[in-house]
Amino acid sequence: MAQVADDRMRVRAQAKWVRTSARKARLVLDHIRGRSVPEARTILAFTQRAAATDIEKVLRSAVANAEANHGLDGDELVVEAAFADEGPTLKRWKPRARGRVNRIRKRTCHVTLVLAEVPEASTRKRPRKQAETPASAPPDGEASAPKATTRRRKKEAVA
């Protein structure tokens, strides 16, 4: 799926019924949201969570969709949105002592990644402003005298 808004092409890829909980997948997705595709690939390669492998497959799929279907360059894309919705939960049970049962919930999630082109305005680097020192700041090396509080000033003004 591709969406065009703001003159930026967006490409989406989704993996459904991924066998990890949405809560665990969101921890990994928070790391790559807003990053460029090469940077996101590097982060996912060194993330030790199991959800990172599934998310990396979705990222590869989204880049392949962008390149094959829309002629975009994969390295020029940014992860605009990354989210994991809850999928259906498989309910299993485990036998326990004295004929009891514990429920086991095998959770699933649907992982969605939206990639967008980098806008041209943000590709240009803006010059950084230098930190301006206030006019009342003392020159380097000199210690400034502690300022009087408002009560002291009022007492001094009265006296």
| Strands, total number | 6
Order of helices and strands: EEHHHEEEEHH
CATH architecture: Alpha-Beta Complex
Largest pleated sheet:
4 strands, antiparallel
Bulk shape: flat
Count of separate structural domains: 1
- What fold name stands as the CATH topology? Ribosomal Protein L22, Chain A
Number of helices: 5
| Terminal residue distance | 78 Å
CATH class: Alpha Beta
Low-confidence stretches: none
- Give the proportion of residues in helices: 25-40%
| Coarse structural class | alpha+beta
Strand order of the largest sheet: 1-2-6-3
Radius of gyration: 27 Å
Spell out the CATH superfamily.
Ribosomal protein L22/L17
Tell me the strand percentage band: 25-35%
Mean pLDDT: 86
Describe the secondary structure blueprint for this structure:
Blueprint: E1 2-5, E2 8-18, H1 22-32, H2 37-45, H3 51-70, E3 77-86, E4 90-95, E5 101-106, E6 109-117, H4 120-123, H5 150-158
Antiparallel strand pairs: 1-2, 2-6, 3-6, 4-5
Helix pairs in contact: 2-3
Short description, anyone?
With 159 residues, this protein is of the alpha+beta class.
Describe this structure in words.
It is built from 5 helices and 6 strands. The strands form 2 sheets. The chain has a 4-stranded antiparallel β-sheet. The chain has a two-stranded antiparallel ribbon with strand order 4-5. The model has no long low-confidence stretch (mean pLDDT 86). The chain is flat, with a radius of gyration of 27 Å. A hairpin with a 5-residue loop joins strand 4 and strand 5 (101-106). The chain has one domain: Ribosomal Protein L22, Chain A (Alpha-Beta Complex). The protein starts with a strand and ends with a helix. The chain has helices at residues 22-32, 37-45, 51-70, 120-123, 150-158; strands spanning 2-5, 8-18, 77-86, 90-95, 101-106, 109-117. The protein is of the alpha+beta class.
